[in-house]
Amino acid sequence: MAATPNVAPAQADPAVPWSRRRAHRRSGWRPRLGYRGQLLLLLTPYLLGMTALVWLPALLGLPLAFADYSLLEPPRFVGLANFRELAGDEIFHTAIFNSAFYVALAVPLRLLGAAALALLLFRPLRGGGLYRAAVYLPTVVPDLAWALLWLWLLNPIYGPVNQLLALVGLPGPAWMVDEWGARFAVVLMMSWQIGEGLIICLAALGDVPEEVLAQSAVDGATPWQTLARVTLPLLAPVLLILLMRDTIFSLQANFVPALILGRGGGPNYATTFLPMYVYTQAFDYLRFGYAAAMTWAMYGLTALLLLAQYRVAARWRLGFRDAE
Amino acid sequence: MTVPAEGQWRRPGRLRRRVGDGWRHAVALPIAALFLLPLAWLVATSLREGGRPPARRLEWVPDPISWANYPAVFDALPILTFAANSLLVAAIAVPVTVLVASWAGFAMAQLPGLWRWRLAALSFAALMVPVTAVWVPRFALFRAAGLVDTPWALIAPAAMGTSPTFALLFLWTFLRVPPAIYEAARLDGAGALRLWAGIAMPLARPTAVAVAVLAFGDYWSNFVDPLLYIQSTEKQTLPLALRALNELGRTDWPKLMAGVTLLTLPLVGVFLVAQRAFLRQVRDER
């Protein structure tokens, strides 16, 4: 994700004299496990931690969806009741719409922004480091701080954004007071935090062989042709991974804006995204079973979106291969 | 990577290169300004004199500049206690994260191909599990383990290297080390731990720095976990304190922005110090 580590070819250890090597072997440090056993040992904390913190909770969530569970009493099996209730829950339908709308708008914006900025900044430029740092900086701001900041920036009357718009003579939207204003506000604020996408694209562009670009220029291709026929196709696999990653991220990451900017998912449920509604049901109403059922709906939506993206991308790449 | 000086493949040479660069500056400068705009407003608002009604017109620099909002944040809440809690969590979680993630990455890089890709696929799959999916069961597990309302509930993710991303990042780094380097040391009878400490980690220093900085950001910024797992006020971390500040006075924007600045500043500082480990893909010197 981050840094391209410039691995300098290290020098091999200077040859150790035989006598010392022998002594070392006899000193009892020699491990009893085989090398692979030692590697597995190094892997153990990671695998155990992942099991305890991701796989076990994810598996526990499965049966919970078929139960009524408030944490105060043991879970009670209720069959498909939670899912039946979900089917008729209008707020849940709104939440699915909100999440889908957010993903449909925010993901392409963030991806295009990151890719375009990387194309602008990947070649050497005097002061280029400052530009890259400036674009990355909003990404380091904690999500809660970012949400509180935008709560002020988007204040309909006094907020700097609307005052700036007024300066230019444009009417400012009512942002968090208006349903559609609120939906766009969350997309807007998340479009600033694209530093990780930028880094990934910069790293990917760094791996494009320079001879290929040079050859394209020698062949008389205009910069646009080079971009469309050479750079973008080479970048495509990374863009696909980034697209999937950002889709997953976007389905989850709007919880804090919804809680802070939307004051718990408002106005009129316009920022009640799926994570917000899961949180409300679980931790405000202690309906953990119902929340778990919703979580499964989220899995489903995530998987569906990823599959669709993969399908489209596969076809798109095949098209490129035909063109060659 | 190295990028060729543009002159190498763009014939007309210097003049055109200058013109080309000028065009890029003309695009990049406003974009950089746009990205910094929210942060400029943040600092400007935090320096506005408290207690006055908000400005009717856009103020780029408040007049007069007042630093009083910063001490006011410390008066309103026991910020130092919360900061100490946040630092305690980060101080344990960040080194553990680097250790666990680099061990995992190293082991994956050294295992035979099939196992390596299986483990990498498992890591990718773990990345896809929505965080909301684990909130509820994790809460139940933490409660059963007696971790709820202790800092350990916040430190726990370090046990898996915080995020599979970090282990994969180390894997990617270690795969770039020529295998011959390890072979020589293995012939010398070095075990896996010695190879990791003596050869792999020194070569992977930029990655280790990047992972440490990103992990510090994760723990310092973490708002949802303490919201879910910490109940006592005196055990809360900084982000929750900031939220309390918002709830205390919903119209005292300068004070709230001072609090936001205080929470953000350490991360900006860490990023600026470590940015070479992040943004070193491009060499700008000519």
Notable characteristics:
heterodimer; A: 324 residues; mainly alpha; MetI-like fold; two-stranded antiparallel sheet; 2 strands; 71% helix; B: mainly alpha; 0% strand
What does this structure look like?
The complex is a heterodimer of chains A (324) and B (286). Chain A has 324 residues and is an all-alpha fold. Chain A is 71% helix and 1% strand. Chain A has a two-stranded antiparallel ribbon. With 286 residues, chain B is an all-alpha fold. Chain B folds into two domains: 6-71, no CATH class; 77-248, MetI-like fold (Orthogonal Bundle). Helices cover 70% and strands 0% of the residues of chain B. Chain B has 13 helices and no strands. Residues 1-16 of chain B have low confidence and may be disordered. At the A-B interface, α1, α2, α4, α5 and α6 of A face α1, α3, α4, α5 and α7 of B.
* Mean pLDDT value of chain A: 82
Structural class of chain A: mainly alpha
Strand order of the largest sheet of chain A: 1-2
Mean pLDDT of chain B: 85
Shape of chain B: globular
The CATH class assignment of the largest domain in chain B is Mainly Alpha
Structural class, from helix and strand content of chain B? mainly alpha
Instruction: Report the β-strand fraction of chain B as a percent range.
Output: under 5%
What is the element string of chain B, with H for helices and E for strands?
A: HHHHHHHHHHHHH
Largest interface (CB within 8 Å) is between:
A-B, 117 and 128 residues
CATH architecture of chain A: Orthogonal Bundle
Rg calculated over all Cα atoms of chain A: 26 Å
Q: In DSSP terms, counting alpha (H) and pi (I) runs of 4 or more, how many helices of chain A?
A: 14
The beta-strand count of chain B equals 0
Sheet with the most strands, sense and barrel status of chain A: 2 strands, antiparallel
Q: Which assembly state applies to the chains in this document? A: heterodimer
> What is the CATH class name of chain A?
Mainly Alpha
Report the principal-axis shape of chain A. globular
Low-pLDDT runs of chain B: 1-16
Number of domains of chain B: 2
